[in-house]
Amino acid sequence: MREDSLIASNMNVSYGGVVSTMHDTILKEIGPFTPSLSVGSTQKMNFVDTDDGPFWLDDDIRSSSKFDVMLDGQAVTIPSKNIKPGWCNKPKGMLQILFERGWIDRSLVKTFITM
After folding, report:
1. Max alpha carbon distance in the chain (Å)?
2. Burial, 99: exposed, middle or buried (Cβ in 10 Å; 0-12, 13-18, 19+)?
3. The three-state (H, E, C) secondary structure of 42-74, written as one string
């Protein structure tokens, strides 16, 4: 098995954290709910700047948590212990990957905790 394969035991439920680097993948199937991707499209395994972000966050939180932020409120680009990590350029978690593939019904999701 490839080191960068999509293996659930090597992933977080939410985004970010210390996980194995996964390669982008071409979708061969989608789920019964509304997917944001289609069969044959490439799913990126990291959030990029043009992504909407984690689907379970409301718009205000998603916007304010996009980039890493110093705890005193200043945006940063270097590693530090005083950083609140944002989602941009971080690995997607299992929930986001399943949602994009149409395996999670968004109408039943209220918050990350109630999924």
Report:
1. 45
2. buried
3. EECCECCCCCCCCCCCCHHHHHHCCCCEECCCC
Place of tokens 């212990």: 81
CA–CA separation, 40 vs 9, rounded Å? 25
pLDDT at residue 14, rounded to an integer: 85
Can you give the pLDDT at residue 11?
80
Residue 80 has pLDDT above 80, yes or no: no
Let me know how long the chain is: 115
The 10s digit of each residue's pLDDT in 12-40 is 888 888 777 788 999 999 999 999 999 99
3-state helix, strand, coil in the chain (%, to 5): 15, 10, 75
